[in-house]
Amino acid sequence: MTNSEQQDLLVFERRESAVRSYCRAFPKMFDRAVNATIYGADGKEYTDFLAGCASLNYGHNDPDMKQALVDFISRDGIAHGLDMHTNAKRDFLETFHEKILAPRNMDYRMMFTGPTGANAVEAGLKLARKVTGRTNVISFTNGFHGMTLGALATTGNAGKRGGAGMELSGVHRAPFDGYFGDNVDTAEQLDILLSDSSAGIDAPAAILVEAVQGEGGLNVASKEWMQKMQAIAKKHGALFIVDDIQAGCGRTGTFFSFEEMGIEPDIITMAKSLSGMGLPFAVTLFKPELDIWKPGEHNGTFRGNNHAFITAKVAIDKFWSDDQFQAEIQEKSDYLEQRLQSIADKYGFGLKGRGMMMGIDCEDGDAASDICEHAFENDVIVETSGSDDEIVKILAPLTIEKETFAKGLDVIETAFDCTLVDKNQRSAAE
Ligand SMILES: Cc1ncc(COP(=O)(O)O)c(C=O)c1O
């Protein structure tokens, strides 16, 4: 970093809270971004393998979303309308129903919550507790559901939980699929525990799960396990909630991460890429019969971002009107898997995740961080995931150009080679 760049970043050091995080891994002033490329203020190009933590599945500044938003703003379209009826909201509701829900035979009500994923999770938890009259929620080891107190209570990570400053209650943590290895059926275990009135677990209001654990290490739930979890929820009078905030909107290959699992969650949470353009926007979907909210019972000033209604509708029309985008994701996922597998094989590491949500388990957080640092020095933005940040996680925009993708993965491969060879040489020398 040049002296003038360092000077430029001083304001963040002096004026912004110490809570900032991503900017520490990527100490650079960024300015513009197009699809999978982010440009530094100095014009330097970076390939984005982080994609706003899966908020930019359709890349940065998609030209059609951008144009629609510019047109909407230019004609004084309503930017903020509380939860009043607007043309933008109507169009989004109709499009989401027609192109996402109806073709999948899904009948859900949409609740516009505050604009973050955590808001959608809070609403889902609150509704499940209200419907069942129960408090306890089952969530899973390594699960991540957000940083507000209710969502944080369902989150596994000790560091994040520690920030609460108070007791986090109302949650029982169960082992995720595969937590004890392939031979232990953690769904069966949970069923046994919930069936035993002396096992010490209060009857649950909900079972809350991610189909692929985004922050918790790209752990993948199998179709069978998800089906069992849904059945267990039903058997024990709980609602089945799938948090699709990170794994949804095409990230795993289909619009919803669980589409090919033959399940029908009672509640689904969505945020991140739903707006299509990185605008704050979240929804909680639930079966119509669960809609027992009283008007205004779960309120908020920023529910239903009209700018996001505009861009989200374009995203759905453009990418989900037919199967073409899904086929492209499949092709890119296959390519990603093949490239990552060959790197992983070289070092005896395992592959994690599925679809365009994959990574390599380096079994060591320091090594994974060194690899990401090396990649950044070579103009690729990539982050870690997992209990000890041991997974190098690739979250490229689903729209990434093939050549950019290939070049970025070359940088990742070199980062592994340089970092691990260096490490090995160092340990041999010690
Ligand atoms: C699965 C999942 N749920 C909830 C959240 C929280 O979303 P937000 O950060 O927008 O509050 C995240 C964020 O990473 C997530 O990955």
TrEMBL record:
Enzyme Commission code: 2.6.1.76
Keywords: Aminotransferase, Pyridoxal phosphate, Transferase
A Pfam family annotated for this UniProt entry: Aminotran_3
InterPro entries for the chain: Aminotrans_3, Aminotrans_3_PPA_site, Dat, Ectoine_EctB, PyrdxlP-dep_Trfase, PyrdxlP-dep_Trfase_major, PyrdxlP-dep_Trfase_small
Cofactors: pyridoxal 5'-phosphate
Keyword Transferase: yes
Pathway annotation from the record: Amine and polyamine biosynthesis; ectoine biosynthesis; L-ectoine from L-aspartate 4-semialdehyde: step 1/3
Molecular-function GO terms, alphabetical: diaminobutyrate-2-oxoglutarate transaminase activity
CDD domains: OAT_like
Cited Gene3D superfamilies: Aspartate Aminotransferase, domain 1, Type I PLP-dependent aspartate aminotransferase-like (Major domain)
Secretion signal span: none
Enzyme class: transferase
Entry annotated with the keyword Glycoprotein: no
Family: Belongs to the class-III pyridoxal-phosphate-dependent aminotransferase family.
Record protein name field: Diaminobutyrate--2-oxoglutarate transaminase
Native source organism of the sequence: Maritalea mediterranea
